[in-house]
Amino acid sequence: FDMNQERVNTLNGGHDVTLEVSDEVEENKIIRTTPEAGKFREKNSEIHLFISSGKESFVLENYIGKNIDQVTTLLPNFNIEISEDFDDQPKGTIIKQTPAAGEEVIPDETDLLFSVSKGPDLRTVSDLTDWNEKALSDYEKSSGFKIKVANRKNSDSIPKGNVMEQSPKPNAKVDPKFDSGYVTVQKDTQVLYEYT
Fold first, then answer.
1. Does the predicted TM-score (pTM) go above 0.70?
2. Which residue in 78, 146, 163, 164 could disulfide with 183, CB within 3.0 to 4.6 Å?
3. Once rounded to an integer, what is the mean pLDDT over residues 93-97?
4. Sign of CA dihedral 16, 21, 25, 29
């Protein structure tokens, strides 16, 4: 039985009405009555109506900064979609959410979208020893690192302008966004490069 809100309010004047959350019965429809349907009652006797207020809603919290595994355990009735992005937050940390905190939603009708940190974008530094300026420039473009010359020294074994030393050391794992790299080149054309 369908009840609009105006009719529910009218009935409330002569009958006892209780609104109940229901996942099965649509909003403003009668769930049940007391006495039950089909039973005889005296004329003008009171009927208690239990009317659906619809599915239970849920106000979303701010999940940003929390671990995705813990949050998905707390929200079993939601359809959760996860995307991963590099970020300076630890791996598994929620960095974005949609819908936003404070929004009232119905769990089984709402898709929660979480962007989760994959951790920093760590890349392995190549061994730049004896590389020339063109090789360093090409490496910058392909790796995302910014390389700067930090020092110039003389060497009997390394050609002029080529890398003699580097920091960070070869095979180090660094994040190009946050870590700088420096090289020392043979004195005459030495250039310092910074990884950024």
1. no
2. 163
3. 97
4. positive
d(CA 53, CA 70): 31
Instruction: Tell me the three state secondary structure of residue 186.
Output: strand
Contacts of 4 (CB under 8 A, 6+ apart): 28
H/E stretch holding 71: helix 68-74
Cβ–Cβ contacts within 10 Å for residue 49, how many? 19
> Which of 102, 163, 175, 88 lies closest to 133, judged by CA?
163
Q: Read off φ and ψ for residue 133, nearest 5 degrees.
A: -60, -40
Q: What's the CA gap between 59 and 57, in Å, rounded?
A: 7
How many Å apart are CA 130 and CA 146, to the nearest integer?
18
| Top-confidence residue, 144 or 119 | 119
